[in-house]
Design a protein that fits this description.
Blueprint lengths: L1 E6 L38 E5 L5 H12 L12 E10 L7 E11 L5 E9 L4 E5 L3 H7 L1 H10 L6 H4 L3 H9 L4 H11 L13 H124 L9 H20 L4 H13 L1 E4 L2 E5 L8 H4 L5 E5 L3 H10 E4 L3 E5 L10 H18 L4 E5 L9 H16 L4 E4 L2 H5 L12 H16 L40 H6 L18 H18 L1
Parallel strand pairs: 1-3, 7-10, 8-9, 8-11, 11-12, 12-13
Antiparallel strand pairs: 2-6, 3-4, 4-5, 5-6
Helix pairs in contact: 1-3, 7-8, 7-9, 11-12, 12-13
């Protein structure tokens, strides 16, 4: 009898069947390299045992060389013994084999008859034998194969591995005797009656095959369940790892956004510094040009003075010479010596008497006066970017107006120094929005006080309207309110100065289109507040008639009164000039408390009283 072998590509080095550590399994517990027929039901025709990581390779070698080699029968029977070797690769690693299925069957009949199926789980160390000849294999083959495994032979051949295999084949291929059949039937079912023809019934054979397949399916299901659970755990670990990576990326994105904001602020600061540097370079260039012009102008006068000094000693030398010639008793000194002494004495004082030490300063002052730009306007507006949409014609009608953009208080002071204002009547100042982003409130208050002091000194008759800072939509809002309190206190220190608090803007909502600039709604309220301060009112009077000039207001004492010519009491003085040029005063109260136009007799009495007071002050 010979064996027919159907195998896949078997690794004869047996390296892909070796695992460093077996996986955990939830399959039914079986003994270690021993057979226990009571673990599974008798109808399952199944038995299993475990082995170790080191010995499983020896079991696989013995199974391969014992059942996949050729066997010659001395009787010369033409019946074939067939073995099929199938492998299943691991899901996560294609270089490893996870499961080996070895099927033993007989050929020569109408259909192949499966004897036993040996399943080797390489990843768990479980070896399972099932089929109708399972009991015969366990009684005859198990101990023989175990002895071969215990020998631990590295190089094994088919002849060595197939020792005593012929006895097993004969036992499973011979026709069972009557006593044997009775024993098997009694073992499986003690109450059943003997039926010699029962084993040859095809229905029984099919039921055995079905039971074998069901057992295989159960085993495969358990293995599949274990693989699914393992894959599920690995997926959970991967998801947790990905979640951690996502959190790290979120933190990194947040840090990068913060860094981007810082870089934007630094870029804005660098832009401002560059702008200031250009302004300084321009100032230095103008100063160098002015210095060169002064040098050219101061070179000419000394040359003319030296020539005059040289002429003066010559005239003085002639007079002593004539007097000395009238006295013959005295010898005449040499002309050269006389000239030197005369020049020395005359030059000693003429150099200091004729030269004026204030000449360069006077020239410089003249040059500075010439370089100032003259501005002739009744109202001067110094405002930052929040006043870019101000229409001077609507804000100050019937008045010549000049709008000068002043982003900071310091730049407003520079504008005041560079220009010469001719008879200004009102200064409207709104600065500080950009200053609080870089300077403390005390410094800004000092700069504003210096600006108001300079305006008051140069133009004491002018009125000053100081606009406080507007609301903001950032963390500088409280700082702006603190500065407003200091600005209101500063405004009270100077005459003719009124502060605009913009309280209605702080009470309004939706007035900004960014953190510090007004939108259309906020700008209308802002312009209305400035116009009310310009006219000396808080709100418009209901159904009031338009007036061709600003409402008159009385100056608070001790502010200087306007220049009004004296008139005789019998003459009617003209008060229109006073109404047009007198500064306005903010009224605190309802419209009923505001100044109303008076009749002609009242105007005449007020004019006479003012003329009398003006005369007393003079």
């Amino acid at each position: 009898m010979a064996s027919s072998v159907a195998t896949c590509n078997v690794d004869l080095n047996f390296t892909r069947y070796k695992y460093e550590e077996f996986k955990n399994t939830k399959a039914r517990t079986v003994p270690y390299e021993d057979i226990d027929y009571t673990i599974y039901k008798p109808s399952a025709n199944c038995v299993a045992f475990l082995t170790s990581e080191d010995r499983i390779i020896h079991w696989i070698k013995i199974f391969y060389y014992r059942y996949c080699g050729e066997i010659n029968n001395q009787d010369g029977e033409r019946q074939l013994f067939k073995s099929t070797w199938e492998e299943q690769l691991a899901q996560n690693d294609s270089s490893k084999c996870e499961k080996i299925t070895l099927i033993l069957s007989l050929e020569g009949k109408k259909t192949d008859e499966n004897l036993i199926t040996i399943i080797i789980y390489c990843s768990t160390g479980r070896i399972q034998i099932q089929g109708r000849s399972m009991r015969a294999w366990g009684d005859n083959e198990f101990l023989t194969i175990k002895k071969l495994v215990d020998l631990d032979i590295d190089e094994i051949s088919s002849n060595t591995a197939s020792k005593n295999l012929q006895t097993f084949i004969e036992n499973i291929t011979q026709t069972p005797t009557k006593e044997t059949r009775l024993d098997e039937v009694n073992e499986m079912s003690p109450q059943a009656t003997p039926n010699p023809a029962g084993n040859s019934n095809p229905a029984c054979e099919e039921s055995v095959i079905i039971k074998t397949n069901v057992a295989n399916l159960e085993t495969n299901f358990v293995s599949f369940k274990q693989d699914i659970l393992k894959s599920y755990e690995e997926i959970k670990k991967d998801m947790k790892k990905k979640d951690d990576e996502i959190e790290i990326l979120k933190k990194r994105i947040t840090s990068l956004e913060t860094l981007n904001e810082l870089l934007k602020k630094e870029n804005a600061d660098l832009t401002n510094i560059s702008h200031k540097q250009k302004q300084l370079e321009k100032k230095v260039s103008n100063a160098i040009t002015l210095c060169k012009d002064l040098k050219q102008k101061t070179v000419i006068p000394p040359s003319t003075e030296e020539s005059s000094h040289q002429i003066v000693p010559a005239e003085s030398t002639t007079e002593p010479t004539s007097t000395m010639e009238s006295k013959p008793t005295q010898p005449n000194p040499p002309l050269e010596t006389h000239l030197i002494s005369t020049i020395t004495t005359q030059n000693k004082f003429s150099a200091f008497d004729n030269e004026s030490p204030d000449m360069p300063n006077s020239l410089m002052q003249t040059q500075e006066k010439d370089s100032l730009t003259e501005i002739k306007a009744d109202t001067v507006i110094l405002c930052d970017s929040n006043g870019r949409n101000i229409n001077p014609t609507l804000l100050c009608p019937n008045s010549t107006t000049k709008y000068l953009k002043s982003p900071t208080v310091e730049q407003a002071r520079e504008i005041l120094d560079r220009h010469k204002f001719i008879e200004p009547k009102t200064f409207i100042i709104h600065c500080g929005t950009n200053d609080i982003e870089k300077l403390p409130t005390d410094n800004i208050s000092k700069q504003m006080k210096s600006l108001l002091s300079s305006i008051n000194q140069k133009h004491p008759q002018s009125r000053i309207i100081l606009s406080c800072l507007l609301p903001r939509d950032d963390n500088l809002l409280q700082k702006a309110q603190d500065l407003n309190e200091k600005l209101m206190k500063t405004a009270k220190e100077f005459p003719n100065t009124t502060s605009v608090t913009h309280a209605n803007l702080f009470q309004s909502t939706s007035i900004l289109y960014d953190k510090k600039h007004l939108n259309d709604k906020g700008f209308r309220i802002f312009a209305k507040n400035l116009k009310s301060a310009y006219y000396g009112t808080h709100q418009k009077r209901a159904n009031s008639k338009p007036k061709p000039y600003p409402h008159p207001a009385i100056r608070p004492y001790p502010q200087p009164l306007p220049s009004i010519p004296l008139h005789h009491p019998s003459r009617n003085p003209s008060t229109s000039n006073y109404h047009q040029h007198s500064p306005q005063r903010a009224h605190n109260g309802s419209p009923s408390n505001m100044m109303r136009p008076l009749n002609g007799n009242a105007n005449l009495k007020i004019a006479e009283l003012m003329n009398f007071l003006h005369g007393l002050l003079q």
